[in-house]
Every structure is written in structure tokens, then in C-alpha cells.
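Form 7-S
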Amino acid sequence: MDFENTNLECRPLSIKLWPPSDNTRNMLVERMTSNLTSKSFFTQKYGTLSREEATDESKRIEDIAFATANQNYENQPDGDGSAAVQLYAKECSRLLLEVLKRGPRVEADKEEVGSDITSAPRETFFDISKGRRGFFEAEEAEELLKPLKEPGNSYTKICFSNRSFGLDAARVTEPILVSLKNQLKEVDLSDFIAGRTESEALEVMKLFSDALEGSILRSLNLSNNALGEKGVRAFGSLLKSQTWLEELYLMNDGISKEAAQAVSELIPSTDKLRVLQFHNNMTGDEGALSIAEIVKRSPLLEDFRCSSSRIDSEGNLALCIALETCTNLKKLDLQDNMLGVEGGFALSKSLAYHVDLKELYLSYLNLEDEGAIAIANALKDTAPALEVLEMAGNDITAEAASVLAAGIAKKSHLTSLNLAENELKDEGTILISKALGHIKIKEVDMSTNLIRRAGARVLAQTVVQKPGFVLLNINGNFISDEGIDEVKDIFKKHPNMLGPLDGNDPEGVDGDGDEDEDEDKDPVADENDEDELGSKLKNLEVDQEN
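Output:
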């Protein structure tokens, strides 16, 4: 190679100073911990913190400083990060000095109550939701919120739920929230504007939002406020400043298509989100598309609820696809939407990614046999630690029962099963009962399933002998009077484990118009019917493998 003729292009070396590595951040925490526990001018004057308290305070300081500096860096991403580093160091020094001057919390408590009295634990949770429900006005706010104004208080969690804040009360509360926002981690503002006019409610929400802007919250609950798009945007300054949220609750909030779009637009980062709950909204398909975008950006999601939100097939399909990115999911609730058969297939594919799933709520989704079979097949090979399965009201018949039973039989940790309001009849019920024999089930709901005497008897005999069993619900079925007596006799030693049977119809007719003419035949003939059903179960374990 001709080195003399080689064209070496000189490029300026670009070094990014931000963000610091995890190792650097940990070293800084250690250094601050050392400052808080070592002998110095400040510790001699104000007291030395214990190693445990110093470590906690150092981590808190570093978290706040990092978040502040990172927000500054995101506002000027083209820089090399030097300004962010300077701000990071400055914030750490400022907050460290505050802690040094405050001294150890426990020692401060001892000085207040006397050296011979053991100090009480510092309160961290301030809750006014347990009082009377009603309007919350300025005078009451002044009195009730006094503990939050005490210097050096340790409140990190507040709950203002169940009290309706007027504008005057909000103005009293605003400076208190401003003074607390650097220490608050959990804020519950659910149901805090009930009965107010829209204009007053929006103004109250904006006051609270501006007061809490810049706080580093772990959990935020804005449920039961009928927010709509206007309400979501009234909380805009708070939502925009949250980059560390782990839990967000927006239930019964009138989250329409526009409101869902606003939530997706305003929250800058959900990469730390573990809990996201929508329930009883009017989101619809288009709103679900926006929620799906939030889900896609939340890889650490463990608990997702989007129930009773008027979502049809298109929106549910988008949600199912988005959920494939959430491999840490432990709880999934999509109840009372229009998932349908196609949605059942989409969800079955998504379930393959959720090996840690423990609770699955899929009632009232119009799954029908095909959708239920797809989900049951998926569950055979995933979620080995599943504890709760609910698939009520899905028009599931005995045709799907063998596959459903095979999936259930593999869930050795399953403790609660709800298959109410389906059409499993005796044949399907006996198949499910045989599957329950292999697991440690504690609660079973098979109410309203067109079950007659044979199915009720086998199910009762299966669960009554389960260690730790709690409750069987077979109400609303077609069990004969003799069958009811038989079931009660099975539970005679444990009557509290059997739910009410007053909704049972011994003369019931199933959807096909077929009456059970053999209900009152002699017990031997009834046993023969059960044997015939039992013969269909011989290959159940083989079916599990298939």
C-alpha cells in the first residue's frame, strides 16, 4: 500500500459527556454517603447520619439531580452534555448540603420528644380520602392540610381522593404542593373535583398540575375525574414533566379518542412504566390505537388494564400486537370489549411472549369457541405460573371444553377459575372438572352454564377435596332438586365453601330447546350417563400434548 498517497481525512473528535455511566452514578452515591457518615464540620454541628439513612438520602439526591440534568440535556440535545454535567453536580451539592444541615431524621425526632423517649416513626403517607365525602373549601383545607406544612415533614405519598376541591381550596393547596414536590413520589388525585362546574374543575386541575410540575413521581392516579381531552390537557404541565413514572391510573375518566391521543402526546417517556390502567372509558378503536402506542413504548409493563372501554376489533388487534413488546407482563385485563374471534387469535399469538403472566382477565370479549380454543392452546405452552383465569360470558360451548381443559390442566398454580355465563353444559363441565383434579384450585365459578345434575355432582366431588378450597359457584344452572340435595350433601362438612343455589332452575331449558327428560331417572341410569361422559375423558392427557 502506498502510504504517502493515502488520503487521511481528519475528523474532529466528538465526545459526549452526558449521560454518565451507571458506574459513575453509583460512585457518586457512594461518595455522598461517605460525606454524610464521615466526621466533618457539618456532621459535628448537625449530626452524622446512619449508613442506611445516608445511603437512602444519597440515592434520592442522585435521582433528583440526574432527572433535572437529563431534562436540561433533552432540551438542548445538540450540545456535548457539559451543561448537563455541571447542573448535575450543582444539584447534587445543593441537595447534599440541605441534608447535612438538616441532620439525621431520627436524632432530630429524639431532640423534639426528649432523649428518654423513643421517637415515633415518621409519617410518609398523607391521606384525606377516609373522611366524609363532600366539597372541600378553603377554611377546611387550611386546617386539614396543616401537617403538610410542617418543616422537615417526611411525606412522600399523598391521597386527596374523595374530596371535591373548589378553586379557593386549590389556591390554599397550591403552595403546599410546590413545597413538597421535590419529595413526593406517589400522588393520588382520583375523584377530587366531583360536582364542580367544568370551568372551575379545569382551573383546579391546572393549578395542581402547575404546582406539581417537575416532581419526580413514581405513581400518579387521576381516575374518576371525567377528564376528557380538556382535563388531560389541563394536567399537561405535570404529564410533560414525568419521565420516571412507574404507575399511571386513568380509570373512569372519559378517555375518548382525543383524550387518548392527548395522553400519548403529553407523556414524554413511559420506558419505566410498570402499571397502566384504563377502565370504563369511551376510548373506542381510534383511542385504542393511541393507547397501543403508549404500550409499545412501555417494555417494562407488568400490569395492563384496558377493560370496559368500547374497543372493537381494530383497536383490540392493535393492543394485542403492542402487547408483544411487553415481555414482563404479569397481569392483563381486557374484559368487556369486542375482541371477537379474530381478536382471540391475535391475543393467542401475543400470549406466547408473556411467560411470567399470573392473572388473565378475558371475560365478555365475544371470543366464542374458536377464539377460546386459540387462547387455550396458547396457554398450554406459556404462563406456567398462571394463578387467575377469567373467561366468563364468551359463548364457549362443550365443543371447546376439551382444549380448554387441557390448557387448564397444565396450570399447576391456578387458584381461581371463572367460566361463568357460557354454555359448557354437563359434558364441558365434567371435562373441566377432570382438569381441576390436577391443580391446587381454590375458587371456581361455573354459574349459568346450562349444567345439570351429573355435571354439578362431578364438579362438586372434584373441588370439595381440594386442600384450601374456598368457594364453588354453580348458581343459575339447571340442576334438579335431587341434584341440589346431592351437591349440598357433598359439602355438608364444608357448607361455607358452596355458594348460593337460589338462582338455580330445575326445569330449565337450554338454548337449543332440549329439556333434560332424564333428570329424574333412577340413580343407576344417571351413573351410566356419567360413565359415558367419563369415557370421553380417557384421552384428555393425550389431547394436552396435541
